[in-house]
Each structure stands twice: as C-alpha cells, then as structure tokens.
Design brief:
homodimer, 470 residues, Uridine Diphospho-n-acetylenolpyruvylglucosamine Reductase, domain 2, Uridine Diphospho-n-acetylenolpyruvylglucosamine Reductase, domain 3, Alpha-Beta Plaits, seven-stranded antiparallel β-sheet, five-stranded antiparallel β-sheet, 18 strands, globular
C-alpha cells in the first residue's frame, strides 16, 4: 500500500509579475491579490493545507475563463477552478502555485428543457439553487452531496449523495459539457440526446477529472419528474450489522428504494445535539421511497418486513414535507454536527465503496478498529450503494493523532480494495488519495491517465498535482 | 456537413511475412491465413466493403491477445478484435490492413456475483448465452441490440437496444474492464463497486472506443433482478405522429416503462412475412412493463390512457412468456426481415437520437423525405430514448441508389444535430459516420479524441481508420 501523499513535498511554480499585471489589466476589479481573498480560495473542507494561490479571477463568462486560462498558459502557470469550496480531498489547494478562477458569478440557468428532462446551467450554481430555479417545472435534480456544492464542482469530482442508489451519480446524470481546455479553446462534449455512441465519451472522461483536463463553463444535466408520492421513514436497529443486512437484502430484492442512509449511534448523538432532535441514539436507517402512492406503499411494506426480520424497531414515518426536510437536513448536517462536537477539530473523512455483498464485513471490521483507536469518530453511509464515510475527528495540531487516523483510513482502504471496492465512492482523489489510487487502479492504468493528461494539457497547468503527479 | 467517408481512400499498410511467420510459430493452428476465414473476418453487417485482413488469430486467453498484439506492435501492423461480426458501421473492416484477433473462443463466464448483481465474462460470450448462463440466479442482463452480439463488441460500440429506456446502455452497465493495450500490457479499469470517483473514468473512455484504445479481455457488467411481473402489449395508431406523441407523454410523466418500440407500417408488413405473424399493418408501439403486479398494472393503465387520447387502438396483451418472446423476437428480427424483403439488397441503417421533445418533428420530416425518394425503407425505433433507425434497402451494385440513400441519411443527421441530437445513438461511428462525428462534436472535440488516441496508441495499430483518421 502507498501512504497518503504529503503535499508539502510538491513544489510551487513561480507566478511572474508579468502575469499578475496582465490579469490586472484584463480583469481589473474582477481580479484580486488580497491575502484574505487568496486564502479563502486556497483551502477546502478537507484537512490538508497549502499556501494560497497568487491571485483570484472572478470569471463572469466563458470568455473570462478562456482569457484567464490563456494568460496563465502563456506563462505556464497553474489554474484552479473554484466555486463552493466544499471539496474534501485538497482539490482546491494551490500546491504548485498558480491562480484561482472563481466561477461563482457564473450561476445562471441557461436553458430549462422540461419536456426533455434536461437543464443547462453555468458551473457556479449550487444544487439547492438549481432545484429552486426549476421548482415550477415539477422536475428535480436529485444529486445531493452533503454540502450545497456547485454543479460544476460536483461534475468535476463525480459527486453523488443520498439519492444515488436510485438516480445514479454525476456519471450518469451529466449529459453534456462546455469545457475550456488548457489552451483556452472551448469544446463541447455530448449532446442533449439521452444516449449516444458518437466517438470517445469525453463527457464521462471530464466528469471526475477534478479540474485537471479542463474547466467546465456549462453543464447539462438530467432532471426527473417529482415523484407523485414520497414517504420517508427512520428505523433503529440493535446493531450496525442488523441495519446493513437489511439494506443488502433490500437491494438484492430489487426494491427501487430512493434513499437509504446508515447513521451510527455516534452520528445520531451529534445530530441530535446540532439539529435539536430527539432521535433514538442507536444505529439507524433513514429511508425514502418515491413512486406512485401504491408503489410507495408496496416498497415500504417490503422493507419493513425485511427490517423486522433483522430486529428493526417499528418504522417512524415522516409524512409531511416539513418533517421529511427536517430529517434529511439533519442527515446532510451530520458532517458539520460532528465537526462541531469537538471544538477546533478537523474531520478526516473516508470514502470507500464496496460491492454490497461485502458491506457488512468491511464496515464491522473497520468499526472495531475505530473503536479500539480511541479517536472520536462518526459513521454515515450511502449504504444502498456500498459507500460509507467514517469521519475521524482529529486535533489538527496533534501529529500523532493525525497519523493514527490516517492509519485507520489506510487499513480501511486496503480492506475495501481487497474486497473489490474503491478508495473513493464520491469525494474524488485530490491530493489525499493519490497513493490509494495507485493501489486500486495499478501502475498501468494510472500511467494511461497520465498519458491522457499529458496529451490534453502538455504544460500541466490545469490543477496540477491532483489525482497523480506527473 | 461532412460527407460520409469513402474507405477506399484509406491506404492499407503492408503486413510483412516475418509477422505472419511469427504468428504461425506462436499460434500454430490458432492462426489462419485461408482466404475464406480472412474474408469472413473482414466484413460486418453494414454496407461498406474492404479487402480482408492478412491473418486471423483465434485467441483463447488474455495471454493470447497480448502476444498477438505484441507481435503486431513489433511490426506496427494493425489489429482488429472480432467476435459476433454484427456491427453495422464498418468497425471490423481492415481498411488499413492488419490482422484480426477473433475472441469467440473466449466465451466463459468468469464470476457470477449474484448478491452484488454483477457478472464478469470474457468478451466473446453473446448476450443470449450470458442470459442463459445466469438464468438460475433470478437475474438478467438487459442490453439487447438486434443481433445476438458479443458482450465485448457491445462494450466496444456502446450498444444499447430495446431495454435502454429503463436500464440504460453499455455506458451505464459496464462496471469494469480488463484491457490489452497497444503495447500488449494488461490494465484493469473500474471495480465491482457500484460507484467510484477514483481518477479518470477509463472504463467509460474504453466503452464506445470501437477497438481503437484497447482490446477488452474481461468485461464486468451489472445485472438486474428478473421483474416479479412482466407484461407486454402492442397498440396500433392512425399515424406515426400519434404513436410518437404517446411515447413522449409517457416519458415526460415519468412512467418507468421498460421498453417502448415504434414499428412503422412497412416494418410490420415485413415482420409479418418473415415471422409468420398477422399484426395490423399500421404504425405500432410494442411495449413492455416490468415491476410488481400492482406496479405493472398501474403503468399499463397510465399508458393506455395516454394512447387512447392519441387514437391508439385497444391494447392487445401478450400475457404468456411464449407470446412475449414471439413478439420481441419478431421485433429483433425486423432488420433481417427487411433485408430479406428485397433479395440481394443491403440496408443502410441510420441511427440518429434526439431529445425526446424533438422526436416527432425529426421523424415526420424524415419519413416524408424517405417516402418521396422512392427507395424502399423500414423504420423502427427505441423511441423512449429518442433513438430510431431508418433502413434504406439498396441494391449494393446501384451507385445512384446508394448515393440517394446516403443523401437521405445526410439530411436526417443534419436535422438531428440541429435539434441537439446525435448522429449515432447506439451503432457507433466506425468508418461510415466519421464526417458526421466532426459535424456533431466539432473539430476541437475530435482533436481531443485524436490526442487521446495518439497518447494511448502511438503507432496507431488499434483498429486504425475508425471514428476519425489521424
């Protein structure tokens, strides 16, 4: 196994004054070199730190992005796209220096094609703002990572969330992209047609490329009709194993459950404190069913029967939209609730995903290791997909504690890979998981990724030092 | 618009005797240079012809594929993977010479992971053989192009078929691949985990790469629980428009219909003759519903109501598995029924796919053009996805007729692209659609594909002259 990468080993490239002058001339007030602005753009929600970028350009159009990239390319200086800043693996860190291109002002909805169940947006719009903007159509966009992330960032990291078990991830839901390449050209990948066999799947290559192959300036995603009926339920279990076995059986039977989240007793306790709830502090499944009224009833009955075989407590139903929102908001806030439970801490978040038949084994061994470590942690999981997150809550100034948490992560990833799984279900590789990627994909596959990167970005200016080193 | 490519413009590279000797030495009876064998491997089901490959290697293992590729690479000679031979766009033609690597003997099921809903197979197994092999598990593999194609070939062309409206295409259903690269190395892409954000999506890049980036030696695909209830129905309509409007409304309402195929009156007539059926010779929808008994009933009622608004005749139900199989076999045989309806003809098959809101407009204008041309044709469509096929039945020796049919295809593609669609929903680009790909994706995107190709296959030996020219 390869150890997690230490970003301080990577060298920053100089940003010449001539580039800063040219950016200032082209962008004026849309460009900032103020330290506070640079620092804000040089970090994410993860636990790794690096010096900030040399400047921040606030792009307002595709043309702005093109011009910023062209100027940077002239000086072979790195560019890093920035929107919500909610990534977890150091994606936004200027580990090789360079400039940040902030696309938050590019947050328009460009075209709602309700009849085709598609929408085209600029990359800076967040998932919540998108859903607000399309509310009147009777459609929704289901992908929901914990944070209110930007659609561009979600595409760049191949994000997913709680709805993926039914609706897929950004992999399945991005139809087309407008991309600014390393030379500042604009290309379009994909079309609004639902399927295509037209050449290499550049859309899927770009989705999950973490800013290393291009900067997205338009994103077309699939939408779904709001289900006629929705019902949510929570169910407590005597053990994590009982909860997980319930999920495995549900998936294997083909019940089209929309969401099924595992929340361990630690997380329930933290969520109760943070969101002022009084949930039973035991391992819990939070579920949601979408469909026709009869279909939802049928699904719920099937899952209730499975749960009760595994000692699940009687379901508690959240029948009104308000109750549902409250429960799911609590789930989405689990990460923040956990971080607040230990003042000054940072969370090291794991992200393994395994074939569902191995989920119980993978989880239970890892829970035992985490319990034995004494490090405070929480555990939540998109268990319908075999994906779960431990959050080890470490004191960032305690090197020993960080090392022990990384060791837990290391053991967990090794276990997941041995079971045919992946080191990252939805957070991406960034800086933090480069070693794990090599273990998972093998040197030959990573070399192929490097060859693609060199072919598309010969100067290595697009978010360099992420996914792999060249 | 770019005209369809003429493959005779492409030059064959010489295959040196030293390579043939080396292949003979390594493979013995597993290698053939007999003309009949070479000719069989130098054609597909499409309408374009080219000289055959210089030799055929019958690979029985990944190692065999590696060795054949390595020997070819030493002489910079093209290699073309071959399995069912059912592609339609000239994918298998040795337009630049070279050797064919036949993987039909690699047809084993390597691992059925029923609990995870996945199976790993060798590339030569066909879709029907795969479904036969997993029948005992209660699971099925839904992707069903017209022919009994190989899983390797289906992955290489990003195939789909009648079930894609509900289950997706090969894009969504291939989880992982073992690939022999241009240098004869083996890499593994993807894992059996349901989702992953681990680096570039090499699996999706390989799916649809038409043999130009690697030869697949193992394919892991998703399986689905056989639905508890299945029911199929046919419904005739007074016009193609009425049928298409029924489909559009069904999709927009989010009815999870499993299959919905349009069959025009010409096709019904040909299918009746070929499959000894007595279907009403009017535009027809052939539909299938999957789910629980109640769910299937609910879906069928919803679609019946929509159909009757558009003048659809009362549904005729196929309630037994035998009746269903008969109907769907007839649909799958439509292509062959059509080709047999005009002795000696070849079909030029179109494959456009448009956003569903534009389906009626695109179809109706193209039907009018085809009717006016006087060329016999049939029309079938996976209309739930916005994808449809005209088959122009031409006399292959009549250059004028071929030119007029290509002109119809040309106009159809231009129309589809103007509507935000694609020139190929599921057949791939091959030789035939290179010009269309350039129109659709633009020079910048095709240049990016070329850059990727050069980076991964610097000698251009993997099925050269397909998708684009270098």
């Amino acid at each position: 196994m390869n150890a997690p990468t230490n970003p301080t080993e990577l060298l920053a490239r100089p940003v010449p004054q001539a580039l800063l002058d040219a950016l200032n001339q082209r962008f004026g007030a849309q460009c900032s070199t103020a330290l506070a602005v640079r620092e804000q753009h040089g970090r994410d929600e993860g636990s790794i730190q690096a010096p900030p970028p040399a400047a921040v350009v606030f792009a307002e159009s595709t043309r702005d992005v093109q011009d910023a990239v062209r100027l940077a390319a002239e000086h072979a200086v790195p560019v890093i796209a920035y929107a919500a800043g909610s990534s977890l693996e150091g994606h936004l860190l200027a580990v090789q220096g360079g400039i940040s291109i902030d696309v938050n002002r590019m947050h328009r909805v460009l075209a709602i094609n309700a009849d085709d169940l598609t929408v085209t947006v600029q990359p800076g719009i967040t998932r919540k703002a998108l859903n607000e903007a399309i509310k009147h159509t009777g459609l929704f966009f289901p992908i929901d990572p914990g944070a209110d992330a930007s659609i561009g960032g979600m595409a760049a990291t191949r994000a997913s969330g709680t709805n993926a078990v039914r609706y897929g991830t950004m992999r399945e839901n991005v139809l087309a992209l407008e991309v600014v390449t390393a030379s500042g050209e604009v290309i379009h990948t994909g079309t609004r047609a639902k399927k295509s066999a037209a050449g290499y799947d550049l859309t899927r290559l770009m989705v999950g490329s973490e800013g290393t192959l291009g900067i997205f300036t338009e994103v077309t995603v699939r939408l779904y009709p709001l289900p006629e009926a929705v019902s949510a339920a929570i169910c407590s279990f005597p053990s994590i194993e009982a909860a997980v076995r319930t999920v495995i059986q549900t998936i294997q039977l083909g019940v089209p459950i929309a969401r099924v989240e595992l929340i361990d007793a630690n997380s329930v306790r933290m969520v109760n404190a943070h969101s002022k709830l009084a949930l039973r502090e035991e391992p819990m499944l939070l579920m949601e069913f979408h469909g026709s009224p009869a279909g939802v009833r049928e699904q719920a009955e099937a899952v209730q029967a499975i749960a009760s075989e595994h000692g699940g407590q009687a379901f508690e139903w959240a029948s009104t939209p308000e109750e549902r929102t409250r429960l799911w908001t609590a789930r989405h806030n689990a990460y923040f609730a956990a971080v607040q439970s230990r003042p000054g801490c940072r969370a090291i978040s794991t992200d393994t995903c395994v074939p569902i038949s191995r989920l119980a084994d993978c989880l239970l061994d890892s829970v035992a290791e985490a319990d034995a470590s004494g490090i405070p942690y929480f555990l939540v999981g998109h268990v319908g997909d075999g994906n779960f997150h431990f959050g080890y809550l470490i004191d960032p100034d305690d090197a020993d504690e960080r090392a022990r948490a990384e060791q837990l992560n290391h053991q967990l990833v090794a276990r997941a890979l041995a079971m045919g799984g992946t080191c990252t279900g939805e957070h991406g590789v960034g800086i933090h998981k480069m070693g794990f990627l090599l273990d998972e994909a093998g040197a030959g596959a990573v070399d192929m990724m490097r060859a693609i990167k060199r072919a598309i970005d010969p100067q290595n200016i697009l978010n360099p030092g992420k996914i792999f080193t060249l």
